[in-house]
Amino acid sequence: MNRISSDFLFHYKQDINVVKLILEHGFRYSMWDEKVIFRDSVQQNFVVCFCDILADQADYHKLCYGNIAFVLTKEWGIKNDISPIRYIHKSSLGSKENYIKIKNLNREIWEKSVTAPNTYQYASDYIGFGLAKDNNLMPQPSIFQSSVSEPKLSSFLDNFDKEFKELEDELQKNGKFKQFATYIHTLGNRLLELHNELEARDAFLRVYQDAFDCPASGNTIPAKILYDEREWRSVKFIGNKDFTSNPNEYKQAVINRFLPPRFNLKFSSNDLVAILVNDQVQINDLINFIKTNTTVIDSNTDLHKIKLYADFHE
Q1: How many CA atoms are closer than 13 Å to the CA of 84, on its beta-carbon side?
Q2: By CB count within 10 A, which of 24, 88, 133, 134 is most buried?
Q3: Comparing 109 with 187, which gets the higher pLDDT?
Q4: Domain end: 173, 202, 231, which one?
Q5: Spatial separation of the C-alpha atoms in residues 248 and 109, rounded to whole Å
Q6: Beta bridge partners of 42
Q7: Which residue, of 183, 202, 221, is where some domain finishes?
Q8: The dihedral of CA 197, 199, 204, 206: what is its sign?
Q9: Closest-CA residue to 153 (of 144, 165, 164)
């Protein structure tokens, strides 16, 4: 029976000079802007993308991403947490209004403490906003929108803060505050774990259909069926601890829209099945480059991996 997906992962490029850089340094994580179904929001992640479309069925894909392909083993991909993504539409679980409200609440509370994480404050804020929701004072998809549309929300939260402080003072007098704080901290830790898991999972979501600007051609496809791309994805999740020696490095990465080379996704010659090109000129160019530079390919044994599409068979 004919397969409908490849046993390998493919990464396409248009510029042969970029191919050479990948052979030297690995795959660079680039910032990717993607529409989220609800309210046409956009999520940004640093990603490296692959697909498992069979090479002889990838002509349409190559028009968008380039006609030079790295072919790597799926074993390498799975070992490096590269995963098929989930395509969603407006009625899919994970894109409906109630889920977005939950996620926005988590994210906005988290953002309040992101510069100086405090799981105690995170948990107490969560309790306050949770009580506001139970009292129907959080009608909108975000805290900010609810504060504008529901005038009672601000006074409710002020009153909660006052009551919570009174509880803390009472527990302090009775020698019970330390025990209480331990409980609140562990609640905050568990909520933070849940928040991080939701954020990580949503980095592997993509809309089923959308207007799309093809990187290789520059053409816009008004309603591209993104599901046809059969994408596998590597996402680099980074935090403040990754930039402790140089805090400005992250800001620069956002401006550049790619992470520094030390984060690159690496592979070895054993992971690389082939590099597929279009003509003998490109084969000769890459062979000459590999022979005169340090790359993942062994110039003595692996040059045969550079081949024409017509010579590649699964």
Answers
A1: 13
A2: 88
A3: 187
A4: 202
A5: 24
A6: 35
A7: 202
A8: positive
A9: 144
